[in-house]
Write a structure and sequence with these properties.
The chain is α+β, with helices and mostly antiparallel strands. It has 12 helices and 15 strands.
């Protein structure tokens, strides 16, 4: 019998279309920035470096001074679909598809120039022409030479031209650029606070420090543990109505979850972070979210030298809610939040009988307090939530609403000398209580 082989490789065109179909443009930008941040961590750089992003209707450009891409790494990892990288440091990428998916999504003409201090490498790829070449295995030519750095730090420059029409339209939109700026402030706030400077179209991406109120009179609830190679840090507290002003980009409301210091989920008040509220007796979840909890803040930091242990989806745009790890973390989040939630209620959750009572507590004034502040990195030991005692509840108040013919209401209003419909209701109610000799408790 003769033997042969059957071609089973996907066509490049189908592969690229499938890879890029559902990814958002903002996600692509973040993926390319993640590669710069990963390079900074992979090279274990300790001094301050920079990542510069420029968006226009003609091109996308990212330039970083985060260590460069070595010749061997470029050949064996950068364009491999999947990652052969040995871990041992906390990176953002894990599946080895982010950079490829992003550059294929944004445009058709790709240029990479990089110098790691040993080699200068340059790659130019026309995606349209490359897709037509059915040669196996898939390869991409590049050129290299000795380092050209002199005294400059190692760098990588990626430029994408011949942008797709959708990308051109977005890059030409001022609201889109503003949204990207705010996204960078949120997503990389911990890196900016550390040793990375970000610029977007020439403007500095401002630092939004993550701080929490913490002093002798006030302390957040802090949970710390190691779980199967994953470091877990959960901080829950109340954002005071007076005194310090916390970040405008992060900590606006609800939960904020970071994986290897990158923000993944911001200001979440959905079932994803436990706001289910199936019953008031169920302490394994949080209550259904209500404006009552607008001052609740939750910060979660998950860190691992093996990013595969992080509960992330492939695009790092959301959490993998089905993972066992996230179920474990969510349980810890709920338990850490519970003392803060109970404090906000002013009494234990189970004691609330109906929505009216919750509404009443929501309008209750907290005592004015102006605590000291700490950075989240300073919270390195477990802490128990502590805050000033809430003002005692006033007598329960119930709202009465009803409708009557306008001409009749106007006649009653004139008869009793009232100036508003509200006053009509209050005075007629008081009249009934007096005439029926109903005593107040």
């Amino acid at each position: 019998m003769n033997t042969g082989t059957i071609q089973a490789s996907p066509l490049k065109d189908l592969f690229i279309n499938t890879l890029t179909q559902d990814v958002r443009v903002v996600t692509c930008i973040l993926d390319l920035i993640d590669n710069s941040v990963d390079s900074y961590m992979r090279h274990r750089i300790t001094d301050r470096r920079a990542i510069d992003i420029k968006l226009s209707n003609e091109s996308f450009l990212i330039f970083d001074t985060c260590g460069g891409i070595g010749k061997d790494f470029l050949e064996t990892n950068v364009f491999t679909f999947g990652s052969t990288l040995e871990r041992g440091f906390a990176t953002l990428g894990m599946y080895g598809i982010g950079l490829k998916r992003s550059i294929f999504k944004l445009g058709n003409q790709i240029s990479i120039q990089t110098d790691d201090g040993h080699d200068y490498c340059e790659m130019i790829l026309n995606v349209t022409d490359w897709k037509k070449d059915s040669t196996l295995p898939w390869t991409i030519p590049y050129t290299y030479d000795g380092s050209r750095l002199n005294s400059n730090p190692p760098y990588t420059k990626i430029q994408i031209l011949d942008l797709t029409p959708d990308v051109q339209d977005k890059f030409n939109s001022v609201p889109f650029i503003n949204d990207v700026m705010e996204t960078l402030k949120r997503t990389y706030c911990l890196f900016i606070a550390d040793n990375l400077d970000f610029t977007l179209n020439g403007g500095n991406v401002e630092e939004y420090p993550l701080i929490v109120p913490d002093d002798k009179e006030y302390s957040p609830q802090v949970h710390l543990e190691q779980y199967n190679g994953l470091g877990i840090k959960i901080i829950c507290f109340i954002d005071p109505s007076k005194g310090i002003k916390l970040s405008k980009a992060v900590n606006q409301v609800g939960w904020n979850i970071f994986c290897n210091r990158r923000l993944i989920l911001a200001n979440d008040t959905s079932a994803t972070t436990g706001w289910i509220g199936t019953t008031k007796e169920d302490i394994t979840t949080l209550p259904r979210y209500h404006p009552l909890f607008n001052n609740f803040r939750g910060l979660v930091f998950l860190d691992s030298e093996d990013p595969a242990k992080l509960p992330l989806n492939t695009s790092k745009s959301d959490l993998n809610e089905e993972s066992i790890v996230y179920h474990y973390v969510l349980d810890k989040m709920v338990k850490t939040a519970r003392p803060v939630i109970d404090y906000i209620y002013g009494k234990h959750v189970q004691e609330f009988a109906n929505e009216e009572e919750i509404e009443q507590v929501a309008t209750q004034q907290d005592p004015a307090f102006n605590p000291g502040i700490k950075s989240v990195v300073e919270l390195t030991t477990p802490q128990t939530f502590k805050a000033p005692q809430k003002i005692e509840s006033s007598p329960s108040i119930a709202r009465i609403q009803y409708s009557k013919p306008k001409d009749l209401v106007d006649r009653v209003k004139k008869s009793i000398g009232a100036t508003s419909n509200k006053e009509v209701g209050e005075r007629t109610f008081d009249y009934f209580v007096e005439m029926e000799e109903i005593k107040q408790p």
